[in-house]
Amino acid sequence: MSIRIEHITKTFGTFKALDEVSLTIPTNKLVALLGPSGSGKTTLLRIIAGLEIPDKGKGAIYFHDEDVVNRQVTDRQVGFVFQHYALFRHMTVLENIAFGLKVKPKIARPSKNEIKERVKELLKLIQLEGLSGRYPNQLSGGQRQRVALARALAVEPKVLLLDEPFGALDAQVRLELRRWLRLLHEEINVTSVFVTHDQEEALEVADVVVVLNEGRIEQIGTPEDVFHRPETEFVMNFIGQVNQFHGRIEQGRGVFGKLIVEADTDGNDKADARLFVRPHEIRVSAEPAGNSEIPVTVLHIHEAGPRVRLELQDDQSYILQVDMPHEDFKMTNIKTNDRAYISLLKSRIFFVDD
Amino acid sequence: MSGTVTLQSNKTNTVTRTESTTESPVIRWLLIGTALLFLLFFLILPLIIVFQEAFAGGINLFFQALTDPDALAAIRLTLFTAAIVVPVNIIFGICAAWAISKFRFKGKSVLITLIDLPFAVSPVIAGLIFILIFGSRGWLGPWFLSHGIQIIFATPGIVIATLFVTFPFVARELIPLMQAQGTEEEQAARVLGASGWQTFFRVTLPNIKWGLIYGIILCNARAMGEFGAVSVVSGHIRGYTNTMPLHVEILYNEYNFTAAFAIASLLALLALVTLMVKSIAEMKVSGGQTTTEL
Predict the structure, then answer these.
(1) Model confidence over B35-91: pLDDT tens digits?
(2) How many beta carbons lie within 10 A of that of residue A85, not counting itself?
(3) Which site among B192, B284, B289, B292 would you substitute to test the A interface, given the most A Cβ atoms closer than 10 Å to its Cβ?
(4) Mean pLDDT of B190-195
(5) ipTM given for this complex
(6) For A88, which residue in chain B has the nearest alpha carbon?
(7) A259-262 β-sheet, strand order
(8) pTM of the model
(9) Do B193 and A86 touch (CB under 8 A)?
């Protein structure tokens, strides 16, 4: 089932959490709502679920062409996984998973045996068959997370919504569950939306990434899109590390201190502009090899990691982050406090709007 | 920066904690001994004396005192009052605790303060307030009297005064518990399709069960044991408006010590049961909380 959100606004007191947000979530895709805290991502998720009511107005939410904006949370048939799982603490794993089936009205309620079968299936899916009699406080964080997922899936929801699904887990479990969620999504094929503030998580798990900032959508696209083709300065800054230079456009070229970059100026002559360069898009060498290179001083070299990270300072005291493979770094022969020369492999210019 | 700051404060915390636990054995035993001695003299000894006095005239006299018609009337009135007051307080307590812990609204802190009011007001004053309102010369008294309803110096007055004195008990027990538990489990139940009642009976109620039981026990103990407020509104009509505590006082003033202590022993027994349920409830509540934090 697809979800279409149109012109949704939500204010809390005087704070505008969402500002005219419109978004289409295609059927059976796994979508990430990515943004910093306060960007409105969780509010949007809760509005889709019906746990939060959007401001009155022209806003609408369509579940497969049917407007559900006035429908109660109990009737929306969504599965929701809470950030802190919200498992029923006085119920066993089995009772937790069966809850959604047991509270169905008599006509729609499956028989006891059917419920048992369904729960068994789900326990197998989350690989916790042996723990059905445990209480939530006897489970690890990762196990609770999986029980919460199974509980949400038991009622066969049309949409699966997850609020910071990995937020409360430690790094190791996190990586494992990420991969597992990806596989699970392929297996159950339900339109799924998850909220995260972790860009790495969003890029790795989702089919589509929606970047939110201050209650507005900055960009919607595949992980490759938002990483390689950021449409706004915010996305450029938020996704991945980036070096920033301030400068202006002069005679069809971007001038950023000593850096001169060819630019598609769009007739924006004399405009203030910012230049963004990713750390891996800078080449460093010990000797100057052309005239477009900029001299810098090497401040720090961090070699402990999959790639070597350098901290460089140019003559205007800009600090630059650069990273490169260990092999390339060895070839350069650079040491701390050396002079070095950089050239940009790739960069992006954003004009500063007044 | 902030990370290091919190780390340091943690360190000082543990340091002071270890220091405080390394008191010399002498001081430790002195502290424990003082507490135990206090308990012995002010709680255990009086309790023993109550029972000793009750049975001083033999078991027959004890039962005679309990089956005296006036005593039976007092017991009946006390049970009747509790039977009304406790359910009303359960409903009020759950509603108030629910409103305070699960919703945001203006005047919330005022409501919390108001709930505590009966704790702050002397029960005698509470009784006098109701005489001013419902007495034959009070605001509403004449109207009720003209409709044939007597409130003061009758059972309704006793019930109302007891209600006033006991209404913080259930709410006070539930508010912190429900605040700590938050609303996420209820939301989860709703998303899973549970109706409001299903959510309440299957999720909320089991979660607050032990706190609620403890609140009910405390409320019941106070409802049966209340003296001051009830004394003012009761009028002490033997066989009609005397509750158990009032009956104890009358017997005592008549130097009928055995009978007085026989009735008193019933109230003391209630206190013992209360303590027992309280310790069970506390074990369950704190046990549940510590393990959820794991």
Answers:
(1) 999 999 988 898 899 889 888 888 888 888 888 999 999 999 999 999 999 999 999
(2) 24
(3) B192
(4) 93
(5) 0.82
(6) B185
(7) A259-262, A253-256, A243-250, A272-277, A348-351
(8) 0.79
(9) no
DSSP-assigned letter for residue A130: G
How many Cα neighbours within 13 Å face the side chain of B113?
4
How many residues make up chain B in this entry?
A: 294
CATH superfamily of B58-284: MetI-like (1.10.3720.10)
Q: Cα separation of A185 and A56, whole Å?
A: 34
Q: Residue B153: which residues within 8 A CB-CB, separation 6 or more?
A: B233, B234, B235, B237, B241
Nearest-neighbour CA in chain B from A137: distance (Å): 5
Closest Cα in chain B, distance from residue A352 (Å): 32
Euclidean distance between CA atoms A29 and A32, whole angstroms: 10
Structure tokens at B256: 């009928």
Q: Look up residue A300 and give its amino acid.
A: H
List Cβ neighbours of A153 (8 Å cut-off, separation of 6 or more): A79, A122, A125, A160, A188, A190
The answer to whether A82 contacts chain B (CB < 8 Å) is yes
- Report the DSSP beta bridge partners of residue A216: A213
Is residue A276 within 8 Å of A292, Cβ to Cβ? no
Measure the CA–CA gap between A237 and A239, rounded to whole angstroms: 6
pLDDT tens digits for range B219-268:
999 999 999 999 999 888 888 889 999 999 999 999 988 889 999 999 89
Residue B2 in this model has a pLDDT that exceeds 90: no
Indicate the domain borders of chain B: 16-54, 58-284
Query: What Rg value do the Cα atoms of chain A yield, rounded?
Result: 25
For residue B219, give both structure tokens: 């409320």
Q: What is the pLDDT of residues A286-312, one digit of tens each?
A: 888 776 678 899 999 999 989 999 999
Nearest chain B residue to A150 by CA distance is B192
Q: Do A82 and B188 touch (CB under 8 A)?
A: yes
Mean pLDDT computed over every residue of chain A: 89
Residue type, position B27, single letter: I
pLDDT tens for residues B141-164? 888 888 888 888 889 999 999 999
Q: How far apart are CA A244 and CA A226, in angstroms?
A: 18
Determine the Cα–Cα distance for residues A21 and A4; give it in Å rounded to an integer: 11
What is the arrangement of strands in the sheet containing A216-221, beginning at the earlier edge strand?
A: A78-81, A159-163, A191-196, A30-34, A208-213, A216-221
**Residue A286 burial (10 A CB sphere; 0-12, 13-18, 19+):** middle
Contact (CB<8Å) A89/B207: yes
Structure tokens at B14: 């543990």
Buried b (16+ CB within 10 A) or exposed e, A124-137: ebbebeebbebbbb
**Rg of chain B, C-alpha, whole Å:** 24
Across the interface, do A86 and B207 touch by the CB < 8 Å criterion? no
Cβ contact B202–A78 (<8 Å): no
Beta bridge partners of A194: A32, A162
Q: In chain B, which residue's Cα lies nearest the Cα of A139?
A: B294
Query: Helices (DSSP H) in A232-276: which residue ranges?
Result: 233-238
d(CA A77, CA A159): 7
* B288: contact with A, CB 8 A cutoff: yes
A35 interface with B at CB cutoff 8 Å: no
